[in-house]
Structures are given as C-alpha cells and as structure tokens.
Amino acid sequence: MSTATGGLKVKIGDQIPSVGLRATDGYLLNLRSLVGKQPVILLFFGGPTLKGAARERGDALAEALKDAYPRLTKQVVTVIGVTTDNEQQQAAYVKELELPYLLFSDERRIAVAQLGIPTTEARGNVNAESTAFAVGIDGTILDIVEQATPKGLVARLLEAIFPPG
What is the pTM (predicted TM-score) of this model? Predict the structure, then answer.
C-alpha cells in the first residue's frame, strides 16, 4: 500500500530554507551555505531502497543528472541529489550507478518537511516524491518541478537559472 502525503510549503521567489543534510561521504551541508557561491539544481527523489518501476523512475532521474553533470559543472552549477535513505544505502547507490555527484541523506525527512515535499510510504519505507528546484546564487528558488521526470528537466532548470536574452 502506498500513500502520498505533503504539499509544497515553498514557492518560486522564496529563499531556500536553512536545513542540514549529510552526504554519502559524511560531509555536512546546510542548504543556505550555498548562497552566494553558485546556482544549484536540487533534486529530491526516491531510488536506493525502491523496487520495480519506482526504482527505475528514481534511477532515470539520477542518470539524467549524471548525463548532464559535465555541462552543469562547466556552467558552474552545483548538483545535489537528496533521498530519504541512509548514508550507507546511498553510498552503495552512488557506486552502483557511478554517480559523479554526491547524494545527501534526509533520512529524518527534515528537509522534506520544511519544503513540504510529498512523500510516499510503502511497507514502512518512506520516499520523497520527485521534486526538483533551481536555486539562484542568492538562494532564491527560481523554479520548482513537481513530479519531475528526466525528459527536459535539466534544460528547464537551466533556463530558470540562466534565462534566455
């Protein structure tokens, strides 16, 4: 049985909240610490502990960021993936998919709650619904993509960060 909960608490134009997350390499990150450094693509998704079609959807999003990573780093955009899995599960996932970027653990779902990202629960496993954010260098949320899918995701977020013209 799967149930969805939540509803976004942030909108375009808001500041990204202060929330701490731990990376697969043990590094601690506060989302507000990125302000003033460079724009960010922030993706919350389910992946490491999912099975079947849900796992495939998470893998596809992780792979889309992996494929775009060289272009994003060239444009000086930070890539952050976040799941509600623990650091060990994420470390195995990063290794399995050979991800060039770190995943951050929101195992306690503090960031998910602060942002209001919907979650699903199945057999005691709670995962964030795929939600992507483009965050400007000043910490402003420039775009939000709920129920994110790989197709066109990176292009849309980059357009929010670097508007044409």
Answer: 0.91
Indicate the domain borders of the chain: 3-161
The CATH H-level superfamily of 3-161 is Glutaredoxin (3.40.30.10)
Which amino acid, one-letter code, is at 24?
T
pLDDT tens track of the chain, all 165 residues? 333 444 789 999 999 998 888 887 778 888 888 778 899 999 999 988 888 888 999 999 999 999 999 999 999 999 999 999 988 899 999 999 999 998 899 998 999 999 999 998 877 788 899 999 999 999 999 999 999 999 999 999 999 999 987
